[in-house]
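Format notes (please read before filing issues)

Several people have asked whether sequences and structure tokens are stored in separate files. They are not. Every record keeps both together, in the order shown below: the sequence lines, then the token lines. Line labels are part of the format and must not be stripped during preprocessing.
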Amino acid sequence: GDLRSRALKKLLQVRSSLHSHIQTNPDFLESLAPVFTNPEEPFLKEMEQAALAWNTGPMAAVAGAVAQEVGRELLRYTDTVIVENGGDIWARSQEPLECLVYPGEASPLSAGIPFTVHAGEGISICTSSGRVGPSFSMGLADSVTTIHPSGPMADAAATSLANRIRGAADVTPVVGSVAASRKLRGVLVLCGESLGIWGDIKLR
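Then the structure lines:
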């Protein structure tokens, strides 16, 4: 059936919880570093935990968190869910998920990089860029795409890793750090002509 009304209702609930928490805790909105504001809502706590794990502000995790909250709600009514929120995705599907990361017109790989991810248990796919889109980034990556079961974790990780990409030479060490830490299921980084990939991502 049509789940748009249920998705919208959950989205409005999430936005309301977020706005009310920010009104009493403005640091949650403004900080570029982890903060601890003792929120009641589990998804807000998860945003703070993701910020701590990746040394960002909690709002670096907001798009992934919202996609996840809406997606989990819709799982009550259907087995297959794909929620896209400004380039950040939370999905569950028994079929492999076919994705395309778009690194921008200036990239030598501007046609995009197609890849496949397993989403049978629920997965988040988040992308941050220093060149494309409205989100704040301190880096110059064309794109950093992260895979993690948690939407907030994937989103904060994408922001954190993209901040560390100042040029093509940074791609290998950044991907290597993810491989060593095993903090993510997978990562795909594009900067200029450099492409780095590790983990549960299959190029098509």
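For reference, the curators noted about this record: Helices lie at 4-24, 26-30, 42-54, 62-74, 151-163, 171-181. The beta strands are 81-85, 88-101, 113-128, 143-148, 186-191, 194-199, 202-203.
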